[in-house]
Amino acid sequence: MNIDRVMVVIHADKPYGCISFIQGAGRAGRGGEDVRSILTIERGAFMQLCKTESRTLNPDDAAMQEYMTTTGCRVKVLTKYLDGPEFERDCRQIDGRRCDNCVSPKRVREDDGPQTQKRRVKEHLLRDRTVRNFQRRKSKDMKYVMDVLECLQNQCAICWCFQCTEDILHEAQDCPTVEFLLEDIAHWKKKNMYVRDSACFGCSVPGDMCVWYSESLTCVRKEVVIPVCLMVFTLNHYAGMKIVNQLAGREFVDMKDYSRWLVQRQRVCGFNSTNAFAVFEGLCRKYM
Fold it and tell me: Alpha carbon 267 to chain centroid distance?
């Protein structure tokens, strides 16, 4: 939807994750207007949401839960999730409309005065410069990951994962190491489906980065992400499992639990993606 002069966006009940909420709210104000985003939820559903432990949710849903239940600035939750904890900013710092938690006579009085305005402009310019540099680094990282993916179209992804330097010009299914895999890749992918708008089912690359997925065509890129992720767990690859545990915030006891986690939504270099691609991206940075 691309309609001019949308001034209010109303969300009925809890959105399907923070990214979905942001995309919906972004329908308004495309012409620079001062707009509002309103979220409504039944009291019972809200109380249940407050009781839900965030560690049981995927990162996108956890961010949405924190946004809805926080007693602090809601904008800080969004900027922390989108830009990273080091770049979190509140309503005042981004010079935007105050969220409901920030609207109070005391805070409004604190914002008055030319010195406050000068400080706000300075902070805004500094944040813009910092975010641009951060996004530039992320873009560079993603380009490197995509270059690795293209190289692995003609090499064994499993041998790359274990940093083998000899005889790597073979398919992953022909690799001697593949005998340790407990399950066929094609069968695994049929049992573990990606959520919509997260990744290409064919190559596991973020949907926005796969030209075939974006055009609703059959992907012809060879799958290398999932073989690497499964082999990391099967053979307890030290560097790979360290990345997995850091991303998940816990350890996995079996392949079934690990597989469910791999297909969950995750933000990678600013793109909607999955935990599987986040593990692969982490290994790429490890081997840079």
Answer: 1
